[in-house]
Specification:
The structure holds three protein chains of three kinds.
Chain A (H helix, E strand, L loop, with lengths): L1 H24 L16 H8 L1 H34 L5 H9 L6 H15 L5 H25 L3 H9 L4 H12 L1 H17 L2 H6 L7 H11 L4 H24 L1 H6 L2
Helix pairs in contact in A: 1-12, 2-12, 3-6, 3-9, 3-11, 6-9, 7-8, 9-12
Chain B lengths: L5 H21 L16 H6 L2 H34 L3 H17 L1 H12 L14 H25 L3 H9 L4 H12 L1 H16 L3 H7 L6 H11 L3 H25 L6
Chain C lengths: L3 E12 L2 E12 L3 E5 L6 H9 L6 E6 L2 E2 L11 E3 L11 H11 L4 H14 L15 H13 L5 E5 L7 H18 L2 E6 L2 H7 L2 E6 L2 E6 L1 H6 L4 H6 L4 E7 L4 E5 L2 E4 L11 E6 L4 E4 L6 E11 L3 E7 L5 E7 L11 E6 L5 E3 L1
Parallel strand pairs in C: 3-8, 3-9, 6-7, 7-8
Antiparallel strand pairs in C: 1-2, 1-4, 4-5, 9-10, 11-12, 11-14, 12-13, 14-20, 15-19, 16-17, 16-19, 17-18
Helix pairs in contact in C: 2-3, 2-4, 3-4
The chains are: A mainly alpha, B mainly alpha, C alpha+beta.
Amino acid sequence: MMLRVTVLLLLAFMTLPTVVVIAVSFNPTAILSFPPAGFSWRWYVNVLTYPQFQRAAWNSLLVTGGAVALALPIGTLAALALERARLRGRALWAAALLSPLVAPGVAAGLGFLILAAALGLLRSRVVLITAHVALVLPFVVRSVWVSVRNLDPALERAAASLGASPRRAFFRVTLPLLRPGLFAALLFAVVVSVNEFVVSLFISNRVTEILPVAMFTYVVNYTDPTIAALSSLFIAATFLVIWLADRFLDLGRVFLQH
Amino acid sequence: MRLLLLPAIAVLAVFAAALTALFRWSLLEFIPGSLVPGGYTLDNFRAVLTPQYLHAVRDTVVLAALTTILTLVASYPVAYALARTPSRAVRSALLVLTLAPFFTGAIVRTYAWVLVLGNTVVTWPVPMLFTERGVLVGLVHFSMPTMILILAAALSHIDPAYERAAASLGARPARVFWRVTLPLSRPGIISGGLIVFAWTLSAFPTPELLGGGKVKMIANVVKDLGLDSFNWPGAAAFAMLALALTLALLTAAGRVTGSRAA
Amino acid sequence: MARAVVELKGCTREYGALRAVDALDLAVLEGEFLSLLGPSGCGKTTTLNLIAGFVPPTAGRIFIDGEDVTGRPPHLRGLGVVFQSYALFPHLTVFENVAFGLRERRVPAAEVAQRVGEALALVRLEGRERQRPAQLSGGMQQRVALARALVYRPRVLLLDEPLAALDKRLREEMRVELRTIQRTIGITTVFVTHDQAEALGLSDRIAVMQGGRIEQLGAPREIYERPATRFVADFIGASTMLRGRAVSGELVTVTEGVTLRVAAGRALRLGAEVELAIRPERVRLATGPGDNVVEAEIDTLVYQGAQTELTARLVDGQRVRAVVTEPAPVPLALGQRVRLHLAADAFMVIE
C-alpha cells in the first residue's frame, strides 16, 4: 500500500514537467503561466513557421536519415561478424563497438570539432553525420546482435543446399529473420539521433544545426512558450513511437531480460 | 566473415581519431585570439587546479554524488514495482513512463524544469531556478529512468523464492526487504550508482539551462572555454578530465556486474 | 556393375589437431541406400558435410558423377539435404519452404505449384501448404524437410540423423516410409545414424565408422554376421567376447578345461591369441554335456516377455550373454548353474 502511494508520487514527479510543458504550450499570452490563462494554437503555428526551426527540422531529417541509412547496414554486418566469425577477443570487439556510449558528450563533441577543423570540414555536414553514425552504432549493433544470436545457422546451410548462393541466402533467409532486431535498431537509432544534442552543439553552426540545438539557442534567448509547443510535439511523437515499439516488440523483454 | 566488421571499425576509428585529437590538444598551448595552438605544455591541466576551476570540479563531484544518492532512493520503489508487478498492463505502463523521458531528448526535459522551477506552477519559498538546488532536481529527474531500468533488471534477476522463504521463516515484509531483497540487489545498486555518477559528472544541458550561468559543472566549463572563448586546448583539458573520470567509473561498474552481456 | 555417383578419394578433414575424417575412400553407388553408422565423433556427419560442401576437405577430392566438385560451393552441387533439426524456414509457409529450391532454379510458377503438390503428396502432407513450420508436429516437419529436399530431383539425398528427434514409435514408422519413398524414386541416398537397428533395417550397404575411418563397408547381413574388426563386432549387436588361445587349426582353449571348436572358414594360427565373438541369440541352453557345451552360473536375468536376456559366468569369470526365447526349456533363476551350447559356426574370430 505504502509502496503504491510512493510509486505514484514518484511517477507524478517524473511526469509533472511533461504535463506543465504541454499545458503551457497552449497559453495564449507570451507569459509563462500555469495553469494556462486560456487556449491558443499560436505557439504551434510559431513553431511551424519559424525559419530557423524549419531549417533545423530539415537538417535533422538529413542528418538522422543519413546516419540511420549508414548505421543500419554497418551495424548489421558487425553484429553478424561478432556472432559468426572466428574472433580472438570477441568480448573486446564487442566492448569497442559499444564504446562511443561511454565517452562524455562534451569530450566527443570537442574532439570532433578539433578533428573537423584539422580536416578543413568545419562547415560540412559530413562530420555531423559521421558523429551521429558513431553515436548510434552501439544501439544498432546491440539490437541486431540479439536477433542474430537467435538465428539457427542450419537455416543458412539449408538454403545453400537448396541452391541459394550466399547472397541469395542472405536476402531470402537471413535478413527476413532479422526483422525484429532491425526494427528495434531502427527505432533506437532514429530516436537517439533526433534527440542528440551535446555533440551536435559543438560541431554544427547556424546553417547545419539540428532541431535540439536550435531549440537550445531559442531557449537561451527567448522566454515565450514556443519551445513548450515544440517540446509538446516531441513528447507526442515519442509516446507514439514507444507505444508502437511496445506493441510490436514487448519492450519488457528487451530491457529487463538479458 | 571477419571482414564484415571493417565498416564498423572504420567508424570507430574516426571516433578514436576525434578523441585522440582531443587528447593531443589538451597538451598544446593556447594562444589567445587564435585557433592555432602553440607547443606542448601542461598549462591546461594546471589551469584545472586554479581556484576558479577547481571550484567547478568540486561542485561537479558534489552535485553528482548528491544526484546519485537521491536518484537511487527515488528510483528504487519504481524499479521494484516494475520488476515485481504481475500484470503485463501495469508493467507496460510503468515501462512507457520510464522510457519516455529517454526518448524525449535532453532539451525538452530540461526546458520543462525551467518552467516548473521558474515559478510558473508554484512560487517556490526559496529560489529554485538558476541555483544548485534547481540543478540537483533536474539532474535527479534526468537520471531516474536509467537508474530505474538498471535496478529493475537487477531485481528481476532475484528469484522471488528468496523473499518467500524469508516470509515463511517469519519475517515481516519490511524485514524481508531490508535483509533479503536490498542486499541481493546490491550489484545493481552499485553498478547503477556508478553509471549515474559517471554520466552526471559530464552532464551538460541540465546545468546549462537550469544553472543560468551561475552553476558550472565540468561540461559547462568545456563549452565556455571551447565555444565561447575558443580556448580549445583549455577546453580539451577539462574534457579529458571528464573522459578519464567516466572511463574509470564505468570500468568499475563493469567489474561489479561481472561479464554482463554486451 | 552399378556406377559410383559420389566418390570420396583420400579425404581428410582436420580441425586443428583433431582429425575428424582420416584419408577416407568411399564410393556411393547409383540408387543405393548407404548408411554411415558409428558412435558420436566417428566422423560420419563430417563426411556428410564434405559431400554436401558445407566444409572443405583438408586433403583429398570429392567427385559427383565423375566431376571433381571439391572446390564447388554447396549451392552449386545439386544435392538434397535433410538436417537433424529439419532447418525449415520459420518465416515461410510449408508451400514456400518446399518451393524454395525450385524458385532458386527459376522454375515457372505453374510448374512450381504442381511439383510442390506432388512432393507433399509423396510424403503424405497434402492440405498443409499454408501453415507455418511452427504449427506442425515434429513428424510433419520432418516430412516437409524431406519434400523440400526431393522436389527438385537432386542427384543425391543426404540425411543427417533425420529421425533422431522423433519418439520411438514415430521413428519406426518414418523409417519404413523413408525407405519406401527412396525405393519409389530410386534416388541415391546417404544416411547418417548412430542407431544400428536403423542402419541394419534400411540400408543396402553400411559403412561402419570410427575415428574418422571406415572400419567395415558391406551389406547389413555381412556386417552383422561377419564383423571384420573388434570394434564392429562390439558396436553391432551385443556380443560376448571370449579370449583364448588356438591350440590347433580349429580348437581354442578359452580357459582351463574349456576348449571350443571353431568353424570360422579358415584355419587358426597355432598358438595365436584370439578373441571369439558370439551373438547372444546364438547361445543355446543345453540339457546335457557335449561338444562346445560350457558350464556357467546365471549372473543377471532380465525378463522381457517374448524373451529373457541373461548373462552367465564361466569358471574363470568371463561372462557369456544369451537371449533365450520364452518359454525357456530349463527353469531359470539367479545363481542357477546351467549348460550353454556355443555352436562352432556361430563364432566370429578376431585376431
